[in-house]
Amino acid sequence: MSVWKDKRTGKYRVKFMWQGKFQEKKGIKTREKAIRWEVQRRNELENPPPIKPASSVSIDSLIIKYLENCQPRMQANTVRSKSLYYAAFLGALPAYDMPVDQITRLQVTEYIRKVQDGSVRIEEVATKRRRDYRKTANRHLRDLKALFNWAVANDLLRTSPARGIQPFPEDPYIKYVPPAEDIDKVLLVANRQEMDLLLVLYHAAARIGEIRRLTWEDVNFEKKWVRLWTRKRKGGQLEPDLLPMTDILVDVLSRRWKTRVKTSPYVFVNPNTGKPYTKDTHALRYLMARLCRRAEVKQFTFHAIRHHVASIINDSGKATLTQIQKYLRHRRPTTTENYLHEVGRSLREVADILGSKKVTTPPSQNRSGQGETRD
To answer: How far apart (Å, rounded) are the C-alpha atoms in residues 88 and 120?
Structure first.
């Protein structure tokens, strides 16, 4: 009998054999519900859902589809990096048109290991600057996971062959932040256009891309705010942030307004072309290297100025982490903490407590272990 009442609990149980295995359910309140469960369970066993067919898409086709999806959502240099990583991965496979569902976790693991030990040659600027192959391998792993996860989400693959593969441990990279005197030296050797650019970067704690996109519609002199547009968000869309202007920022932008290029809506335009700067504009791309060399200081970047400003605000002791986070326009406080390179104020307070205590020097010990007494 497959359905019966359990005398101990007073509820019904169902138990029957199906292809050598018992199917069982306990604690059913009525006999009718128990019978209904058995009928439903037998029907599920006799008519299982169809197995999802294996993907027939090739790895090279998948990469093309994924990159096409990325192009309108990500920056051009991000898509370019992904393309380089995937081209190197394709070169390590038996065939470019290999079905993606035939790629194994072992193949991905072995490929990442070869990148880590330098066996795979990558046409990448970052590896020329710092030969940290573990970091390069982790970047490859991250983008391969993104590729396969996208395929799973779009029903092109059942499971990701990169799932569960752990990244390599990386040595922390401490970003160089210039001291105030080096920034002053750079400003002294800059021309008016360059100085204005650096001052706006400094007093808005801005990213260079935000300043390239800055238009006069984004500047409100009456209410003293500036609107900065950034893509540093998930999805890659531009989003605005309003920021109060310092007096120096007002003065710089007011002077530029009076001498602006009236045919352009942008605050900063290339004097050679009359058009806004782009990321690949040669004069802008190598500006900091040229100015640092002329000022005879250690080279730093536009973004290092932003880190410098964050450290100044933090060291002043007048702003909380939340306020600094809002001023830098970070979504997460952990990102702001990465900008604060110096010892935090809370740790300084602990050190001050310890330093305020006078330590009594213990008396010298004689050979018998007794403290010596002196008159």
So the answer is: 7
- Using alpha carbons only, how large is the chain's radius of gyration in Å? 32
d(CA 194, CA 268) in angstroms, rounded, equals 10
pLDDT tens digit string along 123-178? 554 444 445 788 889 999 999 999 999 999 999 999 999 999 999 988 777 788 89
* 3-state helix/strand/coil string of the chain: CCEEECCCCCCEEEEEEECCEEEEEEEECCHHHHHHHHHHHHHHHHCCCCCCCCCCCEHHHHHHHHHHHHCCCCCHHHHHHHHHHHHHHHHHCCCCCCEHHHCCHHHHHHHHHHHHCCCCCCCCHHHHHCCCHHHHHHHHHHHHHHHHHHHHHCCCCCCCCCCCCCCCCCCCCCCCCCCHHHHHHHHHHCCHHHHHHHHHHHHHCCCHHHHHCCEHHHEECCCCEEEEEECCCCCCCCEEEEEECCHHHHHHHHHHHHCCCCCCCECCECCCCCCECCCCCHHHHCHHHHHHHHHCCCCCCHHHHHHHHHHHHHHHCCCCHHHHHHHHCCCCHHHHHHHCCCCCHHHHHHHHHHHHCCCCCCCCECCCCCECCCC
User: Cα angle vertex 233, ends 231, 237, to 5°?
Assistant: 50
Q: What is the mean pLDDT of the chain?
A: 85
- The dihedrals phi and psi of 222, each to the nearest 5 degrees, come to -65, -45
Least-confidence region, from 93-107, 274-288, 357-371: 357-371
Q: Is the distance from CB of 150 to CB of 69 less than 8 angstroms?
A: yes
From the list 288, 349, 303, the residue with the least C-alpha distance to 206 is: 303
Kindly report, residue by residue over 32-62, the tens digit of the pLDDT: 998 898 889 888 888 887 655 555 799 999 9
Tell me which residue of 219, 215, 208, 230 sits closest to 283, measured CA to CA: 208
What lies within 8 Å, CB to CB, of 138 at 6+ separation is 167, 168, 170
